[in-house]
Task: structure prediction
Amino acid sequence: MSLPAGAVTVPLPGGARAVLAEEVPVALVFDGVTQAVMMASPVDLEDFLLGFALTEGMIADRAELLRHEVVRQPQGIELRGWLAAPAGQRFAARRRAMAGPVGCGLCGLDSLAAVLRPLPRAPRGAGAPSWRLAPPARLADGALAALRAGQSLQDAVRSVHAAGFWDGAQMRALREDVGRHNALDKLAGALAGQGIDAAAGALVLTSRLSVDLVQKAAMIGARVLIAPSAPTALAVAEAQAAGLALIARGPDGPTLYTETEAE
Result:
């Protein structure tokens, strides 16, 4: 049987074999400094590096990531990127600010204020695709069905998340990963690499909607975010502030949680 990238077979007691998702440590290294180490699926790694840099605000556009390389080590994988001067200077300044003891324990962030970072807001008066006028249930059903149909890794292993870009008729890009944040980062990188405007469609996720996913979506200019699970209250507040239409599970099915200027 041909396995999709990101899947491996492992032996089971009694001689049978199971198909499981690969999970490896992936270090994201910029200008020689490790920014994060994530447990991730070892696929679409160039998209991962670019997307992470975009959704975390390290770069403003694709051109600020000058070059990159994928280095496979015995213990995992290093994704190495080099930043253009302005982005590199910002990155170095932030790293210096983080030096010394940090006690908040918030996943490596240097302060409580960094958790709720300023987000770009959709431009005033920006138009919306006509399909957004459809009821939330119809939008969610169509988008989630298209996402599920494209999950080849999930079909094999039954244990990975996905993030896709839906244009109202089809899924134009889709990425899968063992981590929900990683899947969205990989999608962000894929969109940037293909020159696709995130505002021209909807980001569709398989996971619950926490505030960090809303932040990543807003950082790449998304206007619509669709997911099958209910959001957190903070995710709704941040989506509202960023002008992001949030469609997710509600008491009576898919629900539009935010009002935006384009509605």
Observations:
- The radius of gyration is 19 Å.
- The first strand starts at residue 7 and ends at 11.
- The chain has a mean pLDDT of 90.
